[in-house]
Specification:
The protein is of the alpha+beta class. The protein contains nine helices and nine strands.
Length: about 350
């Protein structure tokens, strides 16, 4: 299990240098070396937030501004059902297939993708799941993206796809590369326009579904998943995405199962996200120009309350992007679960 090493950021703004990629390596690989002390620090930070009884929690986080770009994980290799976070994976698979065919998405595919991500529409996901070839198509895409511990759900059950917190970071890395070198077109991975399309949709999540990793910042891109298991009555609650805190961009995936209610599952995920980002921030050695390394006063390590937006910074406004393929800096508003 990799963990966050003390992160030294460049003294001047600029792209993080990219190590050479071996030809036989997966398109996206986790970076970083293990550090027992920092793994323990993450475990200590998450212990107060960790579930009890049948509740299980796993989390992984990566600071994209860190020179070493290490990934920290807490139970990062534990397997969970995805619920609706698999919709990001379905869209990535669809875009890879379109790239291979040398075409753009059709109008019908684009509209279904928008509904699937922005409003978590299940009918749109059912249709796109069939378009990509269901489990076989998803698994083929994930082999290219380096998701070695994710398996598509059986038959039409995309929500029963199994994954790990570390694999979800791999998926996010394919969408939010650390540097322009990773942004270049590659044979195996997502092309820049494909990544920009996914990012655009993940920034425009409908109000009421924008909880989760957004608890750490008002600047976020995300997708959440939630489902009540019929056999047990317990809830799967997951959240993946990117947040910007103190000038640092963090990829984060938080997975949970066995929650007694949706509301308590959301509270668990949001407390864990805040704890993880707070821990990551303490391992920044030197701040980049114009950024602050301390956590904001309004962002505690743990928020014992159940109000998902209670500790978020004020919403500074929102700017509309010019077109779907342009990666503009959109600040999304804070919303509460319905």
């Amino acid at each position: 299990m990799a963990s966050i090493a003390a992160c030294s950021t460049p003294a001047t703004p600029g792209e993080v240098p990219t190590p050479p990629v071996r030809s036989q390596a997966p398109a996206v690989a986790l970076a970083g070396q293990p550090s027992e002390n920092l793994s323990a620090a993450l475990a200590r930070a998450l212990r107060p937030a960790a579930g009890r009884g049948e509740t299980r929690l796993a989390l992984a986080v990566r600071d994209l501004n860190c020179v070493h770009r290490d990934v920290a994980s807490y139970r990062g290799d534990a397997s969970f059902n995805t619920a609706s976070i698999s919709k990001v994976n379905i869209l990535a698979a669809l875009l890879l297939q379109a790239q291979d065919e040398g075409r753009r998405l059709t109008g019908e595919e684009r509209r279904a993708a928008e509904l699937m991500i922005e409003t978590s529409d299940n009918d749109a996901a059912d249709w796109l799941w069939r378009v990509i070839g269901e489990r076989e198509g998803l698994d083929a895409a994930n082999e290219r993206l380096g998701l070695s511990s994710t398996q598509g759900g059986p038959g039409g059950h995309w929500g029963l796809t199994t994954t790990t917190a570390e694999d979800q970071i791999r998926l996010l890395q394919s969408i939010f590369p650390a540097s322009s070198a990773h942004s270049a077109r590659t044979r195996q991975g997502l092309q820049p326009a494909s990544r920009a399309f996914i990012r655009t949709l993940m920034r425009d999540i409908t109000e009421g579904q924008d909880w989760g990793v957004s608890a750490a910042s008002s600047r976020w891109s995300l997708k959440n998943g939630w489902v009540q298991r019929s056999a047990t009555g317990l809830w799967v609650i997951n959240s993946i995405g990117l947040v910007t805190v103190d000038g640092h961009r963090y990829l984060i995936s938080a997975l949970s199962s066995g929650n007694p209610s949706k509301r308590r599952g959301i509270s668990l995920i949001e407390r864990a996200v805040r704890a993880a980002i707070g821990t990551a921030g303490t391992h920044v050695r030197r701040k980049p120009t114009g950024a602050h390394t301390r956590r904001p006063a309004g962002l505690p390590l743990l928020d014992p309350g159940l109000a998902p937006c209670a500790a978020r910074p004020p919403h500074p406004g929102r700017r509309v992007w010019r077109s779907w393929w342009e990666d503009t800096d959109v600040i999304a508003p804070c919303g509460r679960p319905r």
